[in-house]
Hints:
This protein has seven helices and two strands, in the order ββααααααα. With about 150 residues, the protein is mainly α. It has a two-stranded antiparallel ribbon with strand order 1-2. α1 crosses α3 (about 50-60) and α2 (about 35-45) crosses α3. The radius of gyration is 16 Å and the shape is globular. The two termini are about 15 Å apart.
Amino acid sequence: MAYLEINGKQYEAKASFKFERKANERYVDSNQEYSGLEKIYQDLMSYKISALLAFWDCATSHLKKDQPSVESIEDTLTSIIEKDEEALEQLFKDAFQVIDNSGFFKLQLKEFWKNIEMIDKLAKDDAEKEQAKLAKKMFTDKRKELNPSR
């Protein structure tokens, strides 16, 4: 499990209905067909710093009234990163593993990875096939990097 201390209070990240609902409300990219969860998941694999904020916003949504504000999450993440740049990689790993190891999102992510495995089979020509193979390798390498137990 991932934890984040904000203003002296320890918060545990949870993958749940509330996580997915908030992800779909706030973090869907209208230019793509991905759900909010899939966008956050992919952005974590791309080490997009905004994905950490989105993750913690969604991962604490189960707390309802006690949920920390986006600004306090942002301030805390900024403080952690400014104090120790090495902590940034661990923040990404912790967030990614909460989603990737979640029984709650197991079937959804299984489908995501099945689609990644098929990407080269959908290519129309050799150039697209080569690009698809590289993309597939990039995704699987990132997953292993962020979640070595997979």
